Amino acid sequence: MSEKNVVPVTVLSKTTWTPNLFSFTVTRPDSFKFTAGQFVRLGVNPSKLKYHQQQNSTTDKALDEDIFRAYSIVSSPFDEELEFFSIVIADGAFTSQLQHLQVGDELMLNTIPFGFLTLARYQQPLPKDLWLLATGTGLAPFLSMLQDLQTWEDYEHIILAYSARSQEELAYVEQIEQLQENFGSLVDNPAKLIFIPIVTREPMAGALTERLPKLLVDGSLQQKAGVPLDPESAHVMLCGNPEMVEDTKETLKTMGFVMNRRGEGNIAVENYW
Ligand code: NAP
Fold this sequence. Notes:
This protein is α/β, with parallel strands linked by helices and 273 residues long. It has helices at residues 50-54, 95-98, 140-145, 149-154, 173-186, 212-217, 220-225, 242-254; strands spanning 6-18, 21-27, 39-44, 67-72, 81-87, 106-114, 129-135, 157-164, 193-199, 234-240, 267-271.
C-alpha cells in the first residue's frame, strides 16, 4: 500500500563523514511544518536513483519499489532546507540504497511529522538545566533543538553529551562549536552550551571514554560539565542506541529522575531504531 501525504523532495547536498555515516539535505516543501526534535518518514525508490541509472540496473524489478523509514530532522524549523543524518546498515534495505544518493536525486517526504522528543512536552516552570544525551545518529534531534533560540533562552545551562565509537564517527563537532559561538553570543553567554564528547573505543584528547550510565554513576559526566545533575534542576533527554536509552533511563531513575508523562517528570527519550 502506498503512503499518503507524500510529496517529492530533491537532494541538494551530501556530506560523507565516514564510509558508514553521511548527512544530506533536501528541498523543503513550503507547506511542511515541524517542531525541533520530530521525525518524518522519508521514502526512496532505488530504481529512480542516478546511481542505478549509471549502473544500468534500473530494469531490476526488485529495485522498483518505494521504501520508507523514519528519520529525525537535523535542521531547525526555520531552515529553508531539511537535513538528515544517516548510518549505513550493510544489510538494511533502506540505508544501503540511500548511501548512493547524489545531488539531484528525488526522495519522497511524508509531510506528517511525528515524535514527542520535543521541548514543548515540558511544562512551566522550567528547571535551570537541560541535559541532552546522545549516541551516534541520535544526535540529530538535539542539533535541531539547538538551532532554536528559544532553547537557549529557556535554560541556564545546556549540556550536550555525545557518544560515538571513534573520533571519526563523532560527526558535527565543528557545527556544534559554531552553535556555541553563534547562539552563545545571541544570548550573551558563550559558556551556555557545554559540549562533552565521548569516544568509547579509542583514546581522544579532551573526550570521556566510558559509556553514559557509568559516567553518570561515577559522576565524571557532571564533573566534566561543571554542573550538578539534580532532579530538581534538570530536564534530561536521551536519544540513540535503544540499549543506551534503556540503561541510562534506569540509571537516572536510581538518581531520583522520573519519566515525563503529561508534562510532569524530567526524562524524555527516543530510541533511534
Ligand atoms: P553504537 O553501537 O550505537 O555506538 C555509538 C555509541 O553508543 C558508542 O559510544 C557506544 O559505546 C555507545 N553505546 C552503545 N550501547 C550503549 C549502552 N547500552 N549504553 C551506553 N552507551 C552505549 O554505534 P552506531 O554506529 O551509532 O550504531 C551502530 C549499530 O546500530 C549497528 O549495529 C547498526 O546496525 C545499528 N543500527 C543503527 C541504526 C540507526 O539509525 N542509527 C538503525 C538500525 C541499526 P561502545 O563503544 O561501548 O559500544
